[in-house]
Amino acid sequence: MDLPAGTIKRYRKYFGLKRIRQPWNKTLICHAIKRRLNNKQSIQYMIVRAEDLPLVMAAERHFGNWTKAVQNLGIDYPMCFSHRWSGKKVIQKLRERYRRHLPLHYTSLYKTRDGRRLYAESVYYFGNLRNAIKASNINPETAIGPPRQYWSPEKILAALKKRARQGRSLLRLVIKQEDSRLFSATCRYFRKWNMALKKAGFCFNTLG
User: Which of the residues 92, 113, 182, 204 has the least number of beta carbons within 10 Å of its own beta carbon?
Assistant: First the structure.
């Protein structure tokens, strides 16, 4: 029997149940894209990002970008606009924004219609915004910061070991204050803090 919309969410909240996160892989991403097509939902990048951000982020992580994820299904990625910009125009627009000291980060571009268009065209021609900025002879480190780090259990354990070598605390509350991203990733991949420390080769009782 189908439950009314929102019922499961209310039950989870009432009983204090947590939603289990499904780890993404290429197969699940492809199924999710097919499901959107079967439900007659758009697969245009900006629309999917607004409606299902975790799916877009997973596709970028496993395929490189959203376009490649869609093309992996043998689908001719639809044109998002009736008249495409050229790659040269994308570079020109990026340089113009940089000269005017306007931010080039996605969150800033997304605030205006022209910015969203610029971002989408950058992804279409160069694969992602960082590559487009590089092609414009702009240092992406100064324009949008360092590349985003995707965590894995191995990277988490390496980060914990690095903190230990530097003589920094491995206590849960200390890391939460000093490195929120490492803290969140550790909690996400390991059910208990002690388990993460044990995997990294540390004894919790000796950490003080």
Answer: 113
Q: Which of 65-79, 81-95, 101-115, 153-167 has the highest mean pLDDT?
A: 153-167
Largest CA distance in the chain: 64
Output helix, strand, coil percentages for the chain, rounded to the nearest 5.
60, 0, 40
59 Cβ partners below 8 Å, 6+ apart? 29, 33, 65, 66, 68, 69
Give the span between the Cα atoms of 205 and 208, in whole angstroms: 7
Taking only the tens place, the pLDDT of each residue in 41-53 is: 778 787 788 778 8
Answering whether pTM is above 0.70, one says: no
Q: Which among 63, 61, 41 has a CA at the least distance from the CA of 52?
A: 41
Q: CB-based burial of residue 201 (10 Å sphere; 0-12 exposed, 13-18 middle, 19+ buried)?
A: exposed
Query: Distance from CA of residue 206 to its chain's centroid?
Result: 36
What are the structure tokens assigned to 48, written together?
């999917």
Nearest one of 81, 83, 46 to 67, comparing CA atoms = 46
